[in-house]
Write a structure and sequence with these properties.
about 375 residues; alpha/beta; Rossmann fold; 2 domains; seven-stranded mixed sheet; six-stranded mixed sheet; 12 helices; about 20% strand; Leu-bd; transport; Leu_Ile_Val-bd; signal; Peripla_BP_I
Length: about 375
Amino acid sequence: MKRTLLALALVGFGCSALAQTSVKIGHAGPLTGPISHIGKDGENGARLAIDDANAKGITIGGRKVQFELVGEDDQADPRVATTVAQRLADTGVKGVVGHVTSGASIPASRIYEQAGIPMITPSSTNPKLTLQGYEVTFRVIANDLQQGAAMARHAAQSLQVGKVAIIDDRTAYGQGLADAFADSLKQHGVQVVGREFTTDKATDFTAILTKIKGRQPDALFFGGMDAQAAPMLRQMRQLGIGARFLGGDGVCTSEMIKLAGEAMSADTYCTQAGIPMAKMPGGAQFNERFKERFKTDVQLYAPYSYDATMALIEAMKTAGSAEPQKYLPALQKLDMQGITGTIAFDRNGDIRDGGVTMYRFSDGKWEALN
């Protein structure tokens, strides 16, 4: 009798365990290489969201769900990104947070569209990403057109520069941002006295900077990431170029301050899509919890990765299903309060009312201007 009761208890336990459904959500970004700190930042933001969702004991369609984060390293390389995207699709993920860079997101988005798997990038800002006509592509951050316009307006009106030199790293992100900035400068009557190119692997910019020095720009704008921006700024100062240094969100990192060292000055500015963490609806609490969980500061996109992950989960809850084709309509109509603000998408998949903040280096940190 005791053995029979024990057997029945074990069967009951097994049925209870089977009632819990596992749902995989992917994250893709650079986990190795010069901007791995940014990729890991995004992955940690998604991981914190997964932890929070599992702690709540969420049910979808009447079944308790255990979410699992599947992280992949795309090395910020377009070719690797497509391989990673296919691997995530084959693994059976129900949604993807990523990719981090535009150069990776744009080619990867085709794979997700073919597989019918929604992807939400927390950081890819090239406008082309959401202009491809794909149904499953979304973005929770402002794009390059908004950032370029903001920096051009600040350069012309607040800094009153007359001549600007522009360098970009030839990536989808860097070149897209530089193009948006250059186009916006025309509206303000600012002259572009040089347009140069490098790569996202370069570390020596002496030749380019020497050429630019002779044109005596009032400011130099770099479209790219902190791994190139920092040595570029140091070499600018070594060559005696006193122009203001301007950049986008790829420059707005604590790593930029560490890598550039004494070359950082009050003449260093950057734009960042979104609003300062201290002004985000849930920013202060998120920052505290993030540091406690991962023993490191937020670099850039962790709050946006968190919101992207929660957006996928919220759409699944609303639809009562984790199957992409069933929850996609709910994602398209989503309107939820996130850490960074209201998460709602327009018909292209772009975030509605995406903000941009201007920063200036001051007293050892980035200080929000407006």
